Amino acid sequence: MDFTYVFMALIIGLAVIAVLMLYRVLHGPTVFDRLNGLAVIGTDAILLLVLLGVLSGRVDMFVDVAIAYSILGFISMVIFAKYLEGKGDADV
Amino acid sequence: MKYLALLFLLGGFFFTFVAALGVIRFPDFYTRMHASGKGDTLGVALSIIGLIFYLAIEDGFTFTSVKLLFIVVFIFLANPIGTHAICRAAYRCGLKPWTRGGE
Amino acid sequence: MNTTSAGKTKTKRYSYFKHFSTLFLILFLFWTTLSGKLDVKHLTIGAVTSLVVVWVTLSLLRLPSGENKDEYYLAFDIPIRRLLAYVPWLIWEVVKANVHVALIVLNPKMPIEPKVFAFKKKMDSPIAHVFLANSITLTPGTITVDLQDNVYIVHALDEDAEKALTPDEGEGIMPEKVARLFQENEVEGRGD
Fold this sequence. Notes:
The structure holds three protein chains of three kinds.
Chain A: H1 3-27, H2 31-56, H3 59-87
Helix pairs in contact in A: 1-2, 2-3
Chain B: H1 2-25, H2 29-58, H3 63-92
Helix pairs in contact in B: 1-2, 2-3
Chain C: H1 2-35, H2 40-61, E1 62-64, E2 72-74, H3 80-106, E3 115-120, H4 126-138, E4 142-148, E5 151-156, H5 159-165, H6 173-181, H7 184-190
Antiparallel strand pairs in C: 1-2, 3-5, 4-5
């Protein structure tokens, strides 16, 4: 069994998920929905990075990128949430 | 080992896809957070565990596996916190939850 | 009187030193795992970096206790042996939660009855609160929306999810398990 095709299929599937989430990011209705879509894209991008690393045979390098990306994504989500909490307006 | 890796990868992808579908289909913000907060956490974590199994076929358990395991633990800690932060921001801004009875 | 105050400052200093060394060990272990090299140069750079990071961040990571403002908890102060018993149960609950959400999403009629409710769980350690809030978010049908002064505001997908967390009498399985994980029940019973 060749895992290369499995990984390619998973990468395409994750791209499809990212496009579905872009609908949520663009369409709204509230700013929090957009933020939620971005959070889902960010979490899936971690998996996408590691899969690309396995596919190109350089996992040891891509894993470090994935760790940095996961930490940055988490911190930016929390900062966005804190910023919006201060605005006090639900219908942005 | 091979089939275990395949099972984990496909199971993880299934849960991630269901989470995305839920974010599209659910009627309001809070219910969408249910889908993304739970489905994404388990989906990505399962897929990465599948990758650890796949890498262990050739190389065994290396530093890379430890790093991947660290990503799994971090996702399990950080994803619910992110969900909670966005939810709390929405709640304190006065976003009303959807109910079946209507407004 | 004199001796007790002296003893108190002594334990305070001791706890500061303990937290300092614990955080340093965690960061140094983390550095070693990430760098993956075990020669003198990398270990020295790691030790110096960890010391600087501990010096900068320790005041952020020491969380004051809810009852007694003079006592502090370290953010990484987790009872590892009891955690090993808790985590498999939590993972099983997470799998159940995902199957639950998947069944709802794939059902064309979408059988949900969302509601928001509040419940109170008194715990001293802030880390225990983090664990309980995370566990609530990860388990079937509930997410934590807000947490202030020991009061949790929870959004539930249906009636069953609410009853699982706060039954009509007594308290739910999960708050009790988390309290036992951090031994908070015994702290209340001892009364000092």
